[in-house]
């Protein structure tokens, strides 16, 4: 089985702009390595190899325009004993449109549609096993921002869950820049 997701890899300028927010914070956080930072467009989950190949082929045929995005604040997913710190990407509309376009293609292959509302974000740190009060971190970095950057590709990743955290392997890159089609 292959545990897959589709994401925007981050240009170095955005990774650099995230660096100040990835320091300090409450103890107990597991900060993501810079090379693992991304904006998930669609989580797929575990699929067999033939389906993984069909997904890659289908995504390669998709046409969509590049997206221009910037960092725009931070947030917290707090689920009590586990959660995550994240940075927001804006504007939401072009990212949501790309997410929906990918979702429709995956549904056409027989996968379940995405049920959660789409929030374009970059996970910076995670915690589990206890309560963490990250409000101070969120207040300090509420104004996190960057200059706009154009992202002209998205990637199909495979996720490997390890004791130390998830590791991601890029399976295929897909260029944005062709005219969108339905």
UniProtKB/TrEMBL annotation:
The keyword Hydrolase applies. The keyword Repeat does not apply. GO terms for molecular function: 2',3'-cyclic-nucleotide 3'-phosphodiesterase activity; RNA 2',3'-cyclic 3'-phosphodiesterase activity. Pfam families: 2_5_RNA_ligase2. It catalyses: a 3'-end 2',3'-cyclophospho-ribonucleotide-RNA + H2O = a 3'-end 2'-phospho-ribonucleotide-RNA + H(+). A motif (HXTX 2) lies at residues 121-124. Keywords: Hydrolase. A motif (HXTX 1) lies at residues 38-41. The active site is at residues 38, 121. Its EC number is 3.1.4.58. InterPro entries: Cyclic_Pdiesterase, RNA_CPDase. It is an enzyme of class 3 (hydrolase). Signal peptide: none annotated. Belongs to the 2H phosphoesterase superfamily. ThpR family. PANTHER family: RNA 2',3'-CYCLIC PHOSPHODIESTERASE. Hydrolyzes RNA 2',3'-cyclic phosphodiester to an RNA 2'-phosphomonoester. This is RNA 2',3'-cyclic phosphodiesterase. It comes from Sphingomicrobium sediminis. The lineage of its organism: Bacteria, Pseudomonadati, Pseudomonadota, Alphaproteobacteria, Sphingomonadales.
């Amino acid at each position: 089985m292959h545990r897959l997701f589709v994401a925007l890899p981050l240009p170095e300028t955005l990774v650099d702009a995230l660096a100040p927010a990835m320091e300090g914070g409450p103890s107990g956080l597991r900060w993501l390595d810079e090379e693992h930072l991304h904006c998930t467009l669609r989580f797929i989950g575990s699929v067999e190899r033939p389906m993984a190949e069909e997904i890659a082929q289908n995504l390669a045929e998709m046409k969509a325009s590049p997206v221009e995005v910037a960092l725009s604040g931070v947030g917290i997913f707090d689920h009590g004993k586990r959660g995550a710190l994240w940075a927001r990407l804006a504007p939401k509309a072009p990212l949501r449109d790309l997410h929906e376009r990918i979702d429709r293609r995956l549904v056409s292959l027989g996968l379940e549609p995405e049920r959660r509302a789409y929030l374009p974000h970059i996970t910076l740190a995670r915690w589990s096993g206890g309560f963490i009060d990250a409000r101070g971190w969120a207040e300090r970095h509420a104004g996190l921002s960057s200059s706009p950057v154009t992202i002209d590709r998205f990637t199909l990743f495979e996720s490997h869950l390890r004791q130390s955290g998830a590791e991601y392997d890029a399976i295929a890159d897909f260029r944005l820049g062709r005219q969108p089609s339905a």
